[in-house]
Amino acid sequence: MKKTTLGMIGTGILAFMIGFGYFPVSNVITPAAAAPVEQTTGVSEENSAEQTYTVFINSVEKDAAGAVQVETDRIGWYTGEAADKLFLQDNPDAAEELGGAPDGYYIVNNDLTEVKLPVAADAEVLMQIYDRTGNYEDMEINWNELISLDKFDAQYNNPLGLLDLSAFPYHITVKDGVIVKIVQQYIP
């Protein structure tokens, strides 16, 4: 998976501005609050045909009929002790300086396979932060804010937006080969 340098720089600037109080933030950000999902993969206990994965979304596209599909790149999302252990395994020289995963999470992306999946027209989309108005002053975190799939498509594909949504991980729930839920993972 390739991310644009500009997108990462934009996200870094936003994180810097939030960290120094430039944007109003409705909640205190802690590693626990920033990482609501501990396990990234596995079969749901409620329905064996339903699975949740953590991914980067590389594209959001609509076909001629208006059906949405996303191109995903599956990643490992780890928090807490699991994040520290894997981070220190991959970065042994950082043990003394950092002691563990920065910001309490660690992303592993060893498999760059991209998979296109259709999204159900009634899929639930929950966002933490996005460009609501086009003004930096209005950018704030609203945990698990429900937006429509059309709005997500418009936000993701907005080249003039203030926030590059491709820089965030997402937890997707797939049922019978179709995405039924997308949850943006906030990263501090």
In words, what does this structure look like?
It comes from Saccharibacillus endophyticus. This is DUF4309 domain-containing protein. There is one protein chain. The protein is α+β, with helices and mostly antiparallel strands. The chain has one domain. It has 5 helices and 8 strands. It has helices at 5-19, 31-34, 80-90, 95-98, 149-156, and strands at residues 50-62, 68-74, 76-79, 105-108, 114-127, 145-147, 169-175, 178-184. The strands form 2 sheets. It has a 5-stranded mixed β-barrel. It has a two-stranded antiparallel ribbon with strand order 3-4. It starts with a helix and ends with a strand. Residues 1-45 have low confidence and may be disordered.
Features:
single chain, 188 residues, alpha+beta, five-stranded mixed beta barrel, two-stranded antiparallel ribbon, 5 helices, DUF4309 domain-containing protein
Specify the overall morphology. Answer: globular
Query: Order of helices and strands, N to C?
Result: HHEEEHHEEEHEE
Assembly type: single chain
List low-confidence stretches.
1-45
What is this entry, summarized?
The chain is α+β, with helices and mostly antiparallel strands and 188 residues long. It is built from 5 helices and 8 strands.
Topology:
Elements lengths: L4 H15 L11 H4 L15 E13 L5 E7 L1 E4 H11 L4 H4 L6 E4 L5 E14 L17 E3 L1 H8 L12 E7 L2 E7 L4
Parallel strand pairs: 5-8
Antiparallel strand pairs: 1-2, 1-7, 2-5, 3-4, 5-6, 7-8
